[in-house]
Design goal:
It is built from 8 helices and 14 strands. With about 350 residues, the protein is α+β, with helices and mostly antiparallel strands.
Length: about 350
C-alpha cells in the first residue's frame, strides 16, 4: 500500500508542476563585472528579453518575477544571472478572482500574496533579522538559502515574520526539517549575513480541504495559480495510518512532508488560506458553492472507509471528544475560530 501511495503522490506532484509550467514564460538575463551589489537593480541587463535595454527594476515593473538568482564573485566583482518568469494568465486569473470571490475578509491591512519575494539578510541578532520590507503578515514564512562560491545552494533555515510595520519587518529563524531524510547527512551551517531570504516559499503549492465536490472544484477554478494536491492523496495517507479524523498536527505534518507552503480550508462560506509551518491564517475569502450538497467527513475525498485504531494518540485526545461535530464545527475548532 505504501508503494502505491508513493506512486500516486509522485503522479499528483508531477501533474501539478507541469500544469503550472504550461502557463509561464521564462527568460534568463545577466550582468557581469558589477563592482557594487547596490548597482545591480538599475543597470541594463544583458541576454534574453532584457537585451541590454531593461534593468532589474524595469523587468519587475513589466510583470516579471524572479524565479532564481545566481551570484558569482571574481576579483572583487560580481556576476549576476537572473531567471525570470511571467505567468501568461495572471491578468485573466486576477479578473476571475474579482468576479467569483469577494474581497478578503481579514481585518488586517496586510496584503496576502503567493508571489515569492527575495531579500538579502544583512543583519542578525538573537536569531532574528530586520528586513527592509513592510506590511507583511505575522506568521508568514520563507526559507534562508546560502549560495556557495561554486554556485551550489543550501537551505539552511526556515524564517517567519514576527512583527511588521509600514517600512520594515522582523523575521525569526527556525529549523528546516521539511525534506528530512535520515539516510542523507545534514549541514551544521547557520544563517549568516548575505544569505538569501525567500518569503512565501512554495505558497503556490497547497493542500485543499473542502466539505463537498462543488466547493473543491470552485476553489480550484478560482485559484488557478495554485497547484493543489488532491485531497485523495491526503485521504490515502490517513487510511494507511488509520486516522479517520485528522488533527491540526496530522494536517500540518502531511503538508510539510509534501513540501506544501499553504493549506486551503473551506468552512461555511469562506476559504481560509493557512501557512503550513506556522498554521497562521494568512487570508480568508468569501466563496460561493452549493450548500445543499452532501457534506463528506472528514473532507471531500473519493477514498472510502478510513478506519480508526485505538493506538493512534488522537483517538484518546482530539478524536474522542469531537467525532460527532459537523464538518464546519470540526474545522472551526482546528483553526480556533468561532
Amino acid at each position: 500500500m505504501t508503494k502505491i501511495f508513493n506512486k500516486l503522490l509522485l503522479i499528483g506532484v508531477s501533474t501539478c508542476l507541469l500544469s503550472s509550467l504550461a502557463f509561464a514564460q521564462d527568460t534568463i538575463c545577466y550582468k557581469n563585472n558589477i563592482e557594487k551589489a547596490s548597482l545591480i537593480e538599475d543597470v541594463s541587463l544583458d541576454g534574453g528579453i532584457c537585451n541590454s535595454k531593461l534593468s532589474l527594476n524595469q523587468m519587475k515593473n513589466n510583470g516579471w518575477d524572479i524565479l532564481d538568482i545566481k551570484i558569482n564573485s571574481s576579483q572583487n566583482k560580481f556576476n549576476y544571472t537572473y531567471y525570470f518568469t511571467k505567468n501568461q494568465n495572471q491578468k485573466a486569473n486576477n479578473a476571475l478572482l474579482k468576479t467569483s470571490i469577494i474581497e478578503p475578509t481579514t481585518t488586517t491591512n496586510k496584503e496576502f500574496s503567493i508571489k515569492p519575494m527575495g531579500l538579502k539578510i544583512t543583519n542578525i541578532e538573537n536569531n532574528k533579522s530586520v528586513i527592509p520590507m513592510g506590511n507583511l503578515i505575522i506568521g508568514q514564512t520563507g526559507i534562508i538559502i546560502h549560495i556557495f562560491d561554486n554556485d551550489k545552494r543550501l537551505i539552511v533555515s526556515n524564517a517567519k515574520v514576527i512583527s511588521s510595520d509600514s517600512n520594515s519587518s522582523v523575521v525569526e529563524f527556525f529549523g528546516f526539517n521539511d525534506l528530512k531524510q535520515d539516510a542523507i547527512p545534514t549541514s551544521n551551517r547557520v544563517v549568516a549575513n548575505n544569505d538569501i531570504l525567500i518569503l512565501n516559499y512554495m505558497y503556490n503549492s497547497s493542500l485543499l480541504i473542502t466539505p463537498t465536490l462543488n466547493a473543491f472544484q470552485n476553489v480550484r477554478d478560482n485559484f488557478k495559480l495554485n497547484n493543489f494536491v488532491h485531497s485523495d492523496i491526503f485521504a490515502a495517507k490517513l487510511k494507511v495510518d488509520h486516522i479517520p479524523y485528522p488533527t491540526k498536527q496530522d494536517i500540518q505534518k502531511f503538508a510539510i512532508e509534501q513540501n506544501l507552503g499553504t493549506i486551503f480550508m473551506v468552512i461555511e462560506n469562506k476559504v481560509f488560506i493557512i501557512d503550513t509551518k506556522t498554521f497562521t491564517i494568512l487570508a480568508s475569502y468569501a466563496v460561493n458553492y452549493e450548500s445543499n450538497a452532501e457534506v463528506k467527513m472528514p473532507f471531500y475525498t473519493r477514498v472510502e472507509e478510513i478506519e480508526d485504531t485505538i493506538f493512534h494518540w488522537s483517538f484518546f485526545d482530539f478524536f474522542s471528544s469531537k467525532k460527532n461535530l459537523s464538518y464546519n464545527d470540526y474545522y472551526k475548532r482546528i483553526l480556533g475560530i468561532n
